[in-house]
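Input (structure):
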């Protein structure tokens, strides 16, 4: 049976638990699931990905979320994790061995690259092709390339790469592809339909949506999720707890509505920023006019994470802007109901940022669900502060 994304997010699918007519499935807060005989215990324990035995394996509440995420991504299976980083590291621990090489496509979330640097001590190599270099994918592929890792839109500049052309190249060389789809959510981008083998999410962002739960997910084929289950998942132990899964499920219920609002607010704020005399550039797929045909082909909508560059760069200006905001709170992460502001700039990392191609006046906004006019009024206070500075 085919379900729409809204039905998957909001409805109760068969098997979601409806013993008393409840609309919220019970939270199975149990570490173990006992069996009526030792025979059934031994059978189920040897196929722990299929049965409820121990919650570092499977759990009924977590499984509901896994089914929904797999369906939303148009994939066969999903495994949830204790965080987005837990999900990414579990995939690499499952797939890679000494001598392998990862090719990164686009600007990648910092800790993902830090993890790759950490893996060098185990003999795993990597190369990064950023938003200006990704077209040269064929040049980046080495004899030992095991995985092409994509983020699109990418971190900080939210640039798009052509996912289908990358996955086609990868397939010609027999290389697996993995993509971080956190920015778009499964509602606004479906990487599996573009040929991606493994999709990862930080559930901590839009899917959780309320800045009160940390989680991650890997979505792929039955065969890969089975391999992942017995290796990078179970042995490394990054588990999503049942109560956290219930909060992720609550996030999913309103995801379609929230994403519509994040999109509408972001579009209004982008047009305000594009016309502001203090702004040099706005980074968001909706502001990337040169890439529109590809963007429209890949994205089904726009989320609310964007960045922009102040005309006058530098730590003091960026700090003055941010310190004068009140609705936009200063903090890390993104994708919650609340508006947040951040910058990659620190007092001592200017050379590093320039080398990465990031402007020294760069500010990132996670556009929240508050009324867009209220958000713009708040941003205006920041701009007034820097003109008076
Ligand atoms: N991927 C992206 C694009 C992110 O921005 C983040 C977190 O900010 C992660 C992955 C990691 O997710 P988590 O913080 O849930 O480990």
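Output (sequence):
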């Amino acid at each position: 049976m085919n379900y729409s994304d809204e039905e998957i997010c909001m409805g109760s699918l068969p098997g979601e638990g409806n013993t008393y007519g409840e609309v919220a499935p019970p939270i199975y807060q149990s570490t173990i699931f006992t069996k009526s005989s030792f025979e059934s215990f031994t059978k189920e324990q040897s196929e722990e990905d299929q049965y409820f035995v121990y919650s570092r394996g499977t759990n009924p509440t977590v499984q509901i979320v896994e089914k929904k995420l797999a369906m939303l991504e148009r994939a066969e299976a999903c495994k949830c994790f204790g965080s987005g980083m837990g999900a990414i590291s579990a995939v690499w621990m499952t797939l890679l061995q000494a001598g392998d090489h990862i090719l990164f496509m686009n600007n990648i979330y910092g800790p993902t690259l830090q993890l790759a640097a950490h893996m060098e001590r185990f003999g795993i190599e990597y190369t990064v092709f950023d938003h200006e270099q990704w077209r040269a994918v064929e040049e980046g592929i080495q004899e030992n390339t095991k995985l092409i890792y994509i983020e699109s839109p990418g971190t900080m500049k939210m640039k798009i790469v052509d996912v289908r052309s990358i996955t086609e190249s990868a397939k010609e060389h027999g290389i697996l592809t993995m993509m971080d789809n956190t920015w778009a959510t499964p509602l606004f981008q479906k990487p599996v339909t573009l040929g991606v083998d493994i999709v990862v999410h930080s559930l901590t962002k839009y899917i959780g949506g309320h800045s009160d739960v940390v989680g991650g997910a890997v979505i792929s084929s039955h065969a890969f999720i089975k391999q992942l289950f017995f290796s990078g998942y179970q042995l490394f132990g990054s588990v999503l707890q049942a109560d956290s899964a219930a909060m992720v499920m609550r996030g999913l219920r309103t995801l379609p509505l929230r994403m519509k609002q994040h999109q509408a607010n972001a579009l209004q704020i982008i047009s305000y920023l594009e016309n502001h005399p203090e702004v040099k550039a706005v980074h968001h797929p909706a502001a990337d006019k040169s890439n529109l045909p590809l963007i429209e082909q890949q994205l089904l909508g726009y989320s609310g994470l964007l960045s922009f560059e102040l005309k006058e760069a530098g730590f003091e200006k960026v700090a003055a802007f941010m310190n004068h905001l009140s609705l936009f709170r200063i903090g890390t992460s993104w994708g919650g109901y609340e508006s947040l502001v951040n910058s990659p700039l620190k007092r001592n990392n200017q050379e590093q940022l320039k080398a990465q191609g990031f402007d020294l006046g760069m500010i990132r906004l996670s556009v929240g669900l508050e009324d867009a006019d209220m958000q713009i009024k708040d941003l205006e206070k920041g701009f007034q502060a820097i003109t008076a500075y």
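Notes: DSSP finds 14 helices and twelve strands in the chain. Residues 83-85, 109, 155, 180, 182, 202, 204, 214, 216, 333 surround pyridoxal-5'-phosphate (CB under 6 Å).
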